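Technical appendix A lists one of the benchmark inputs used to test multi-chain prediction within the project. The record comprises two sequence entries:
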Amino acid sequence: MLRRREVNEARERAAEILARAGVVLTQKERANIEVADCGLGQLDRVGLQLVTYVNTDRYCAKELVLFPGQTCPEHRHPPVGTDPGKMETFRCRWGRGWLYVEGEPTANIKARVPQGSEPYFTVFHEIELTPGEQYTIPPDTLHWFQAGPEGAVISEFSSPSRDELDIFTDPRIKRIPRTVED
Amino acid sequence: MLRRREVNEARERAAEILARAGVVLTQKERANIEVADCGLGQLDRVGLQLVTYVNTDRYCAKELVLFPGQTCPEHRHPPVGTDPGKMETFRCRWGRGWLYVEGEPTANIKARVPQGSEPYFTVFHEIELTPGEQYTIPPDTLHWFQAGPEGAVISEFSSPSRDELDIFTDPRIKRIPRTVED
């Protein structure tokens, strides 16, 4: 759970990174940046910040902002009814990072698994993303992402988003942020 | 129909505008920018340039680049089978422009209808788009767009794209570009 002050600070930090990346937000969007600490209370290391531009029953587009070294923990988007699960394309706009998906594990990965969370990172096929590079993650596929030393801005293009149904490998994780007032 | 030289010049010009907007492309993407003169042979005034990042059977994402005063002519995305027609969200990233859709016509619109094409522009409900602003166009809805004096970069998030099925109000228009070698 995050305190209101922490949420506001993270929003400002994310807005600065977006500005550096040349991404323009409206004032309302800036004030509503989603700060997801995944319920672990260590936002600097595990979590991410999101701006959802549009999420309809047909498609979704977001901007993901990661602080330097911040990790979006391992999860998958399961099938729901006739939907085979969310499919998403990550396009790096600024900074850099490493995406890990199911498949042949990469030797000597560049990211560092967050200390104390080792059992909950199980896929290690590495894709490095620098500005202009992108990768499409198939539905229902385990993946995680870590930003490099400057942080990263990633555009996510996808089928509809139902974040509350995401399945995280770490059972302690709660995807939907909860905030306590200071 | 465009000459190879014109296509290459338009690609360079579009790449410069994208760079100014802070949008990073790979070398391959730069070399393959789609230049659509709509078959009218007056690209500076009517047409657009596109970078398609991803177009799957579930979603599509593109960057649209318009030169100063360039117009993407009026068209709609019709239903196809069980698909009610392409739905798209235009988000202005850089520059500015005016989007026109079906609905109450705006008095004294800001765009100028391209001379000689007046009969083929029939919807005049104006939405001004400046950086950070966006608008979602419902399926099967007539729309057209004109960039302001600096040009514009517009991110398009949408359901799958089937450009060859677009229906243009101007029967002279051919959406799929054809190039003749110099």
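DSSP finds two helices and eleven strands in chain B. The CA atoms of residues 25 and 51 of chain B lie 9 Å apart. Comparable benchmark entries are summarised in Table A2.
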